[in-house]
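Got a spare moment? Tell me how you read both lines of this record:
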Amino acid sequence: MTVFRRTPSAVAAVSTALGLSLACAAPSTAAAEEITVFAAASLTNALTEIEQAFEAESGHDLAISFAGSSALARQIQQGAPADIFISANAEWMDTLEEEGLLEPDTRFDLLNNSIVLVAHGAEAAPVEIGPDLDLVGLLDGGRLAMALVDAVPAGIYGKASLESLGLWSGVEDQVAQSDNVRTALTLVSTGEAPYGIVYATDAVADDNVTVVGTFPADSHPPIVYPAADLATRDIPAESEFLDYLRGPDARAAFEGQGFVVVGGN
């Protein structure tokens, strides 16, 4: 019978090889993180595209929750374990910052958008949006779909514009409010409401609606999407994702959905 003896040098060689193997394997395992992102519903298409590209490039996993900015901000206030917040409204981000819920010096303005009047179907005639628009006549007894006008950014911008143009009081009782802008879009897309006010980027995402007019930019506050790292935990992957959002691949995805990238050419 042959007996194999472990010599000190052999044991040392095996230990060294094993140590090197583990050292090489460890970084890839340790580096992979799951990042929870809370994002405005109007970012659904663009961020879904960005999610796939970022995960493939970085090895990290993104878990993105889409909803109205107001609902997401309130969840963050209540302790929801999110890592990144991208809001469709600066005021909600201001609130979180004032409450110390953002990591210092991580907030930045990411995107701009515009609001439009959309109609059900592909044959709707364009209108000129201004103080002389007969919006009541246009609705003809139907509903005007909007996101919550006192809470959700798209609804806040839409109401501000209608008030600025002197149109709000005439249609206030005909507004069908929904918890986020994508739901408002769906009401028009399915024909439950003949018209609605949504972001220009939402209209691009649905073939069953037609943009019939764009609200003047000076009739509402600037539409800005700020992004920030939340003060929940601190991992390198959060910074990696925020940097990616400002990179060329993310810019292409945002612009492909009709967003204007802040600082872009």
Remarks:
- The mean pLDDT is 89.
- Residues 32-112+224-261 form a domain with the D-Maltodextrin-Binding Protein; domain 2 fold (CATH 3.40.190.10).
- The chain has two domains: 32-112+224-261, 115-219.
